[in-house]
Amino acid sequence: MRIRKLAGAFAIFLAIGTAAAQASPGYTTANVNMRTGPDTDFPSVGVIPEGDPIDVRGCLRDESWCDVRWGDNRGWVYSEYLGFDYHGQTALLPDVGIGAFGIPVVAFVASDYWNRFYVGRPWYADRQRWFGYHIRPRPGWHAPPPGPRHAGWWRSGYHAPNGMKPPPGRGWRRPDHRHHDDRR
């Protein structure tokens, strides 16, 4: 009986670890800043060009910011600028939700994140400023609604464009992929 409990706990641990290690391939829907943390006060890693492929590693619980990998860079992007192929159309991440793409909820701890991804970068010398940072709510953002979502629930007056197509030939794949190769 005790061995079964241990085996069950180990299986749950493996499932959680595997889910956290996966990424969902998408692309940017506009030229967008990639930041060193989930706030516009954090330094910019660079601007990701519209249509460039990215891997979403996880999003905050309120789905406002997502941790993404773009080429050799890692950083945070507003979720409303992340698109995915969803039934042949572009779906903005907040309109469908992280569950539809298998994106895990992640936390942000500045000291851990910066020590893993930014050692040697120009802004790393200023790291102490961010180590005590506490995530504050994104202005105007609120948690996703329960159940089905309507397009643009996250921005008043927003109307989703009709017929947005994913960028052709940019190296992205449908969210149900098994493996992802690096294109950059």
List its traits.
two-stranded antiparallel sheet; 184 residues; alpha+beta
If you had to describe this structure to a student in words, what would you say it looks like?
The protein contains four helices and eight strands; from the N terminus they run H-E-E-E-E-E-E-E-E-H-H-H. The strands form two sheets. Strands 6-5-4-1-7-8 form a six-stranded antiparallel beta sheet. It has a two-stranded antiparallel ribbon with strand order 2-3. It has helices at 2-21, 93-96, 110-117, 128-131, and strands at 24-28, 32-35, 44-48, 53-59, 65-70, 73-78, 82-86, 89-92. 30% of the residues are buried. The chain has 184 residues and is α+β, with helices and mostly antiparallel strands.
Quick structural gist:
By secondary structure, the chain is of the alpha+beta class. The protein is 20% helix and 23% strand.
Looking at CATH, which topology of one domain would you report? Answer: SH3 type barrels
User: Which architecture name of one domain does CATH use?
Assistant: Roll
Q: With helices defined by DSSP (H or I, 4 residues minimum), what is the helix count?
A: 4
Shape: globular
CATH class of one domain: Mainly Beta
H and E order: HEEEEEEEEHHH
Strand portion: 15-25%
Strand order of the largest sheet: 6-5-4-1-7-8
Superfamily at the CATH H level of one domain?
Answer: SH3 Domains
Mean pLDDT comes to 77
Termini gap:
49 Å
Please count the beta strands (DSSP E, at least 2 residues each): 8
Helical fraction equals 10-25%
Poorly predicted runs are: 1-21, 170-184
Briefly note the structural class of the backbone. alpha+beta
